[in-house]
Amino acid sequence: MFAEIKGLNEECGIFGIWNHSQAAEMTYYGLHSLQHRGQEGAGIVSTDGIKLKGHRNLGLLADVFKHGELKNLQGKGAIGHVRYSTTGEKDLNNVQPFLFHFQQSSFALAHNGNLINAVSLRRELEASGAIFQTSSDTEVLAHLIKKSQTGNFWDDCKMALKRVQGGFAYLLLTENALIAALDPNGFRPLSIGKVGDSYVVASETCAFETVGAEFVRDVEPGEILCIDEKGLHIEHFTKDTRHSICSMEYIYFARPDSNIAGINVHSARKRSGKMLAEEAFIQADIVTGVPDSSISAAIGYAEESGIPYELGLIKNRYVARTFIQPSQALREQGVRMKLSAVSGVIKNKKVVMVDDSIVRGTTSKRIVQLLRDAGASEVHVRIASPPLIYPCFYGINIQQQSELIAANYTKEEICQMIAADSLEYLSIDGLVEAIGRPYPDEPYGGLCMAYFNGDYPTPLCDYENGYVFNRK
Ligand code: SF4
């Protein structure tokens, strides 16, 4: 939830299950544990082997399904989606899964990520007669699948997947199969689990715990998989792959109890905090972390520095969706309603405040002020990631450098702007080492570092061609 006041939001969470008598209910519980990935809208589509049926709406999952809508979603297969938009308007039409009905068949589609050639593909498809019903980039894949016409749905999917570029984890549901695919760089996490005789596929492994599933393996870049009555079948739709796992998943987006590429997110964050203490030690009385995503890094900083960790900031968990409109005014007000400083802990203390990142700087400034108002004698800000300088085009909602404070001001200027006594960031090398190089032979150990150094692992297509905007 804190994502909304920070202004850094990921697109979505997806969950699918095949061969379970309560597929829609299981999907509901799976999505519930992925709610942190999107709070704007939610939906589930199920199949009873003959027909696909779905329900979706704006709002949190529990609100969307509060009138017993799950009862209408019968059958042994289901997919679901929680959404935070990076492209497309915030209206019901853009809430997924999308359901497409054709003369002889139907399919549902859910997407996590952002396509970098969606605009040019959409132009091409519209020029050849396609009519789009949403402003979401996800619909492009459906049109490409329908246009492929190889006579075989599996081959249609593979053909369509070769044309889309960017960050994507897809789930597709037909009357008799669940299909999943991951982009050739594996930007977004996607894992396979098993519960009894059922397979599940989810954005994060924390969803497996919730539904009692065991982890089977991660979906690899460029893979497409099908789960049907014959079981699990995996192929590559392209061999032109490399790992570029979004490092922000480890830093901020994913839940601490999830594992990505075999690395536990909490442990990676804790190591980032330790590394930060090595790189940017400061003598102080206490270390505190900004809840929730920075707590692990703050514990790591405290352990490494020998300065005691204290619960200096408390999050109010019951504000929920008040701040879904990400305007600047609401974001600023939001910080005060969501966070409180514990003056009994802070008063007259030199405080190291560990946060996972600074995006626009608004939140950091407010938190420093909260700590000062609670009586802190000094506030030293330590950021457990490098400065965010470049926009992300693979599924995070910051696509303009003008929105990133570190792209426009020096570290010293930012320190002044947020009124801290000192400010330091973790280095790029420090972050890669702290996460732990999941694929040691690949660039940055298989991580995407583009947010920090502009080294984009793919061409930027529409963004470079000026279709979307002219980059700085
Ligand atoms: S640019 Fe940043 S946020 Fe985007 S995929 Fe790469 S690391 Fe993740």
Report on this model:
The chain is an alpha+beta fold. It has two domains: 2-241, Glutamine Phosphoribosylpyrophosphate, subunit 1, domain 1, CATH 3.60.20.10; 265-316 and 337-436, Rossmann fold (3-Layer(aba) Sandwich), CATH 3.40.50.2020. It is built from 17 helices and 23 strands. It has helices spanning 3-6, 23-32, 61-64, 118-127, 139-148, 153-163, 206-211, 247-253, 265-279, 295-305, 328-338, 343-346, 362-373, 405-408, 411-417, 428-435, 450-453, and strands at 12-18, 41-47, 52-58, 77-83, 98-101, 106-115, 166-174, 177-182, 191-195, 198-202, 214-218, 223-228, 231-236, 245-246, 259-260, 263-264, 286-289, 313-315, 339-341, 350-355, 378-383, 422-425, 447-448. Strands 3-2-4-1-10-9-11 form a seven-stranded antiparallel beta sheet. It has a six-stranded antiparallel beta sheet with strand order 5-6-7-8-12-13, covered by helices on one side. The protein has a four-stranded parallel beta sheet with strand order 17-20-21-22, with helices on both faces. Strand 2 (41-47) and strand 3 form a beta hairpin. The radius of gyration is 22 Å and the shape is globular. Residues 1-6 and 321-325 have low confidence and may be disordered. Iron/sulfur cluster (SF4) binds at residues 187, 246-248, 392, 394, 396, 448, 450-451.
